[in-house]
Amino acid sequence: MSKLFTINLADLAKGAIVAALATVLGMVSTILSAGHLPIGDDWKNIGAAALTALGAYIAKNLFTNSGGEFLASEKPAND
User: Fold this and answer.
1) How far apart are CA 28 and CA 68, in angstroms?
2) For 2-60, how does the pLDDT look when each residue is reduced to its tens digit (9 = 90+)?
3) From residue 43, how far is each of 25, 32, 36, 59, 76 by CA, in Å?
4) In this predicted structure, what is the pLDDT of residue 71?
5) Cα 68 to chain center, whole Å?
6) How many angstroms separate the Cα of 4 from the Cα of each of 17, 33, 67?
7) What are the φ/ψ torsions at residue 63 (nearest 5 degrees)?
8) How many CB atoms lie within 10 A of CB 61?
9) DSSP letters for the chain
């Protein structure tokens, strides 16, 4: 996990994967349940929702410390 107000590449990659999978699977299943296949405008909406989810994940990681605590300073290392 990243320190407070930082984000590392691994967190960014995890966020992109989670955002893309959750959004695409959720929205495509809803579209298919309505009885049609996703078309151009549907994919634009799916992409916009995935980017929003990624932004939320990044914001969450920026505002939590390496222990997962929201807006808490880093705990000193116990040597």
Assistant:
1) 31
2) 777 888 888 889 888 988 899 999 999 999 999 999 999 999 999 999 999 989 988 88
3) 12, 13, 13, 24, 46
4) 84
5) 15
6) 22, 41, 9
7) -100, 10
8) 20
9) -PPTT---HHHHHHHHHHHHHHHHHHHHHHHHHTTS---HHHHHHHHHHHHHHHHHHHHHHHTB-TTS-BT-PPPPP--
Position 66: which residue type? S
Residue type at position 62:
L
Per-residue pLDDT at 68: 80
Looking at residues 51-73, what average pLDDT do you find?
87
The domain segmentation of the chain, as residue ranges, is 9-62
Asked whether 24 and 44 are in contact (CB, 8 A), the reply is no
